Amino acid sequence: MRITQKTLYDYGELLPEICQASMDENLEFLLLLIAAKTDIERAYASQCNNYSVLVTCFEDEPDDYKIVPHDYQL
After folding, report:
1. What is the mean pLDDT of residues 37-63?
2. What is the mean pLDDT of residues 16-27?
3. What 8-state DSSP symbol labels residue 25?
4. Contact residues for 7 (Cβ-Cβ < 8 A; gap 6+)
5. String of b and e for 14-52 (b: at least 16 CB within 10 Å)?
6. How far is 33 from 35, CA to CA, in rounded Å?
7. Mean pLDDT of 52-59
8. Do residues 33 and 10 make contact, with C-beta atoms less than 8 angstroms apart?
9. What is this structure's pTM?
10. How many Cα neighbours within 13 Å face the side chain of 50?
11. Mean pLDDT computed over 34-59
């Protein structure tokens, strides 16, 4: 369970990243970003821009994400 990469995406960056993942044909990452965007929208509705997504990529496990405040830093 070794972490290979952590990336922070602001809510506003999710849609362009979803489009890029669809062009790259990376289905697993595409579904992860769509799920993260949907979760933010369901949980925070009009305050979506105040949140970001922290995506953690693992060496031998599926990628994971957490919703964090917009001012979160790695």
Report:
1. 93
2. 90
3. T
4. 54, 55, 57
5. beebbeebeeeeeeebbebbeebbeebeeeeeeebeebb
6. 5
7. 94
8. no
9. 0.87
10. 5
11. 94
CA–CA distance, 48 with 40 (Å, rounded to integer): 6
The pair of structure tokens assigned to 4 is: 């290979």
Token pair 């925070």 is found at 44
Q: What is the pLDDT of residue 60?
A: 87
CB 39 within 8 A of CB 67: yes
Please classify residue 54 by burial: count the beta carbons closer than 10 Å to its beta carbon, then call 0-12 exposed, 13-18 middle and 19+ buried: middle
Considering Cα of 34, then 14, then 53, then 26, what sign does the dihedral take?
Answer: positive
pLDDT band at 33 (very low <50, low <70, confident <90, very high): very high
